[in-house]
Amino acid sequence: MTLLCVPLVAPTVEEMLADAVAATAAGCDIVEIRLDFLQGFRPREHLPILLRGCQLPALVTYRFVRRPSPLCIPPMAYVARIGLFHTFRRHLGISGALICLFVHRPSWEGGQYEGDDTTRFEALRLAMELGVDYVDIELKVADKFMSFISGNKPEKCKLIVSSHNYECTPSCEEIANLVARIQAVGADIVKVATTAKDIVDVSRMFQVMVHCQVPMIGLVMSERGLMSRVLASKFGGYLTFGILNAAKTSAPGQPTVEELLDIYNIRRIGPDTKVLGLVANPVKQSKSPILHNKCLQSVGYNAVYLPLLGDNLASFLDTYSSPDFSGFSCSLPFKVDAVQCCDEHDPVAKISDDLCFTGPGSKDAAISPLAGRLIVVVGAGGAGKAIAYGAKEKGARVVVANRTYEKAVNLANAIGGQPLRLADLETFRPEEGMILANATSLGMYPNVDGTPIPKKALNFYDVVFDAVYAPKVTRLLREAEECGVKVVSGVEMFIRQAMGQFERFTGGIEGVVFYRAMFLTPCMPNVLLFLTIFCSQLLKA
């Protein structure tokens, strides 16, 4: 079982002990006591208090302040120390009270301590003598530390030898060499932390972890490395870190304990767990992980849904193509790219420039509330195409407004609609009773003040729909309501497309369970009810 460890980074002993109590109550397994964060740290006074006060097993760390430095690549001979063709499954049988891990991290390893090694080593040795469960020492000084303690380490205490790379994630061969070098200095547990410049970097850490024959902590820092923290138990990681709240972080990209336990349900993640996720940039604002994971848990489906901060969709899909990674959703800016990456397409999903509708729409158009109505679609990307096509199929007359006019022209021509420059939207008023649908990212977190149209122009419309759902009430919707216009939140579209995704991810389990996980807006005009249901069916492909 992968342990869940909470770093204690408070400036005082009293605050650290309070956080240790909170970690115990939250259901964590171990706490990391970061001595380098303590102000006025006095080892012989403070260490006994900290160790007696922690109900959980403890890891002690005492790190120096970080100074950027390149990763040292060890000799190739060390590679022989790793069985790269045998997946290890290790369990040390730790149970009961929480374990304490002591770390006194130097500045050059991402810590706060700027003193000398001797003072640091004395504190770590004292922690060992007092019965601490784990001590973390950096590879750079591991030999020196072992000489300092004359190789005398209490049997109960496990020595973690760590390496932190704050610049990048090296190749698999380089990480494997590093692991072998850490083993060679006498580590009980290997820890390697790197930094993800691209989300595909995480795959290299996974490859080394699953073939390592000794207990290993393998983490990739930054938001792009989140999956390394959530999926630690899937790939054999000894422990992963979760913070009590955003103000108590000890490394970039650490999720909260609540997220790990309640959203990602890491206690249920194992080697056979399927990985699903949303590939987008940005992705932090998405509510999809909350919704999908609750529903996966409710039906007992062995999968986890992650927010995946990507930079290149084709590269991502090429890297994570094994059966373990079984399904992905795509959002901005990859909606159009996704069509190019697919081997098969729903005919509706790929609207090409030579596709032109000259008739009134589908055979059902005459009975649709949209039939004959004028709908102005703002945006010509993936969502804009889906809404424009769906509206046309329901018999609506479609106007496409876009910042890049050429894209508006291309989409309008494809569906037999009318293009419009975004700057002209302010004065566009050919008739009363129009419908406005925003399919751009304007107003989406974190740029919540954005809006595609001035407030005074909203009076021209009967209904305003915003595909943005984070925040739920965007500036566009708020100003439309102030003008007395009916509004529909993007939550409607979000839930309906999520239902379709869920059925595809799970091989046919009905997405009706989503309604138990999130509430719908209280009321919804029939006009856009038809539109959002129809468009969601287009987007789920």
UniProtKB/TrEMBL annotation:
Span of domain Quinate/shikimate 5-dehydrogenase/glutamyl-tRNA reductase: 369-428
Matching CDD domains, A to Z? DHQase_I, NAD_bind_Shikimate_DH
Q: Which residues form the Shikimate dehydrogenase substrate binding N-terminal domain?
A: 278-350
- Tell me where the signal peptide lies: none
User: What biological-process terms (Gene Ontology) are attached?
Assistant: chorismate biosynthetic process; shikimate metabolic process
- Span-the-membrane segments of this chain are 513-535
* Keyword list, A-Z: Membrane, Transmembrane, Transmembrane helix
Q: Which GO terms describe its molecular function?
A: 3-dehydroquinate dehydratase activity; shikimate 3-dehydrogenase (NADP+) activity
Classify the source by domain of life. Answer: Eukaryota
Report the InterPro entries cross-referenced here. Answer: Aldolase_TIM, Aminoacid_DH-like_N_sf, DHquinase_I, NAD(P)-bd_dom_sf, Shikimate_DH-bd_N, Shikimate_DH_fam, Shikm_DH/Glu-tRNA_Rdtase
Return the protein name.
Shikimate dehydrogenase
Organism (species): Digitaria exilis
